[in-house]
Amino acid sequence: MTGRHYDFFADLLDGMDMGLCLFDADDRCLLWNNTFLKFFPEHDGHVHVGEPYEANLRRFYAARLDASELANIERYIRDGVLRHRTQSRAFVFDHRGRRLRVNALTDSDGNRVRIWQALVQEPAEAERSDAQRGFSIDLLDHIPDGAMVLDQNDLIIAANDEFRRLYGVRPSETVVGQPFAAVVRRAWAAAGRPDEQLEPGLLDNMRFAGSPFEIELPRDQWRRVIARRTSDGIGYFTHSDISLLKRQQADLLVAERRAWEGERRYRLLAENSTDVIAAISGDRTIRFMSPACSRILGWGPSEMLDRDVIDFLHPDEQPMFLAALCAGEGSGLGRSAAFVCRVRARHDDWVWMEASIGAVQETTLDGADIAFICSLRDARERVLAERALKRAHEELALIAGSDPLTGLANRRRFEAIFDEEWHRAGRERLGLCLAMVDIDRFKAVNDTFGHLAGDECLKRVAMVIKANLPPGAGLAARYGGEEFVLLLPNASGGQGQALCERIHNDLKREPWSAVAPGLDAVTVSIGLCIARAPQGASMAGLIRIADEALYRAKSSGRNCTEVQHAV
């Protein structure tokens, strides 16, 4: 959608009393409507195009935090930016007397669209009928996760046994009428740390119902909290133990062996997981697919059922996936294989995902056999990061192995590649040529025309040498000072001599007077070592032979090539 279309859309939402704000891929504000300013008057007259979302959040929090919480504003801003970037479902929060529901979506250009809706307040408790006020606390004990219900003042009005277990509440203790933060503090106090400070983001995260958050408890225990609030402010919170997240697959398989209650628990965990979880039969047919596939891949779960899982995998990764399935058969519960693969999205795009496959032998209540449980996690950011890191390493390696003046390989890189090619020539009985090239009377060039002209001569000689290397073969390096070295793997003596002759001829045609007035010519002397059987001589011996040939070229009047064969 173009900016002009977003302007139209913003005006349309104004007529429905819904706020809109558009941010680019770098979290900078692009446009907003009047309802947005009505919901967030602290931005009126301050928000501007190009403003970072962090600045937007700073005004938002400055308008709502009391003095006791202002010390945590930087933490709140960081968490708010993370919510902005990762939000995938609507959540509810209170601001300036309004209860707002907000959702966000990223468009095809990477822009982030946020839309706010004011919720209509439901009748007060005193105005409700008896049926409306009725609430069966026993229902919470049928929820396999921990559950608590908060009133409009964020005080606990109900909690199930699993909630009490997750937070170490003793049977003699009560949580009703207390804020949730008090339960967390009591858990720390029970572990002998009564002065433990609450996580700064806890109070802030509690306000944004619908955005999952995590809580740290003693003994390296962690809980994940997901919340929903009704329009009258009642909050329903579920709590799960994520300390043993890696055992999630095994927990799912154990739950599936139970009766109807076990199956419901298995589906509850799978359907609320942010990962894509699939149950696959022995013939590779998909028997269950969690709803997360809609968010990540665009497929509805029913569209993937009863199809071969291979249909959704990139051809390059299908053999790896099949090998993981074969390796998993008979390996026992809890044994799994993990790898990164591309999975087909609905519109024929490929999404990088981290796959983990565990083998099982189960039968569902409807008679379908389950042989494997596969968990798929979005790995696009990880793959992009790994590729960027690889490119960076390659660039660093290239920089570390290059001569900064001429752009040719440096001596260290030459010696490493020479070692590889010398061993390869010995194994495969190939010949090679090695040439040492030295600029004639280079000191006189520096003394007469200056070091800048000397550097330009070095670069031009290097350019001529590099231009004469065979495409995709050979290596030219600056060996030191005004000396260069050429390596021609699997080359005959005739090829080596022809290359040296081309270098001499090209240097004659080079416009040296453009480097410095009065500089008529720059020539080189070359010593060429031709080795038909390199395994008969050491690397140092080949370099010595080329150097001896170079000395003869210098002694013979320079601007020529002398050849010597390795014995």
Task: Provide a descriptive summary of the structure in words.
The strands form four sheets. A five-stranded antiparallel beta sheet has the order 2-1-5-4-3. Strand 11 and strand 12 (286-289) form a beta hairpin. Helix 3 crosses helix 4 (73-86), helix 9 packs antiparallel against helix 10 and helix 16 (442-449) crosses helix 17 (451-467). The protein has helices at 3-14, 34-39, 53-62, 73-86, 130-133, 161-166, 180-190, 201-207, 248-256, 260-271, 292-297, 301-304, 318-328, 380-400, 411-428, 442-449, 451-467, 493-509, 539-555, and strands at residues 18-23, 29-32, 91-95, 98-106, 112-118, 146-150, 156-159, 213-217, 221-229, 235-241, 276-280, 286-289, 336-344, 350-363, 369-378, 432-439, 475-480, 483-489, 524-531, 561-565. The chain starts with a helix and ends with a strand. It is elongated. It is an alpha+beta fold and 567 residues long. Mean pLDDT is 82; it is low at 122-135 and 330-335. The chain folds into four domains: 3-118, Beta-Lactamase (2-Layer Sandwich), CATH 3.30.450; 138-243, Beta-Lactamase (2-Layer Sandwich); 249-383, Beta-Lactamase, CATH 3.30.450.20; 401-565, 2-Layer Sandwich (Alpha-Beta Plaits), CATH 3.30.70.
